[in-house]
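tool_call predict_complex ligand=pyroglutamic acid
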Amino acid sequence: MKKLLLTGFEPFLDYTVNPTMKIVEELNGQQIGDYKIYGEVLSVDFMSSGKQLLEQIERHQPDAVISLGLAGGRYKMTPERIAINVKDGEPDNFGNQPVDETIEEQGEPAYLSTLPVREMVNRLLEVGLPAEISNTAGTYLCNNVMYEGLHYAATQRPSMKSGFLHIPASHELAIQHGKIPSWSHEDLKKGVAVCIEVLSADEA
Ligand code: PCA
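tool_result ok
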């Protein structure tokens, strides 16, 4: 059985719940395709989120990493194509707000996801879930964590697939927030499971 590190994030900014947190907690310990899932929740913290991801990689020694993040306002499930070596944007949960900073001094300007993003989108559409590839993960914590996972894989473990999946708000969050489109929690979780099945099938 292969190991998949599946990460989510805690709530941040005016998003009072983060649907990714509940998904990783519920999928933790489950088996999907050939993968046993190791679910972990990361902080929204420019200083430590990347380090937390690398610690979890060292701890679980996964064959693949999928990180999840909330993209409040998006209507579709969006596998990310690329992570860039930039930290910038809104303040994190500790009030830090880097401007135009690099994530890794020695890192490449950008890394492409090594997950089968096209196949994931195609399969999501087949099962009736709206999806498209996203060509930007932004410059906030999601991009940061995606970049760190890909940088680690590129420099230390080339066989480890790594990438990121942005998901829409859950109904629970949309009710609290008031101004964002949403999916049911069950559909969000199903979409994540479908992407893991595609990853597993891609390697079979
Ligand atoms: N989404 C944010 C950070 C945490 C999360 O779930 C992002 O898109 O960067």
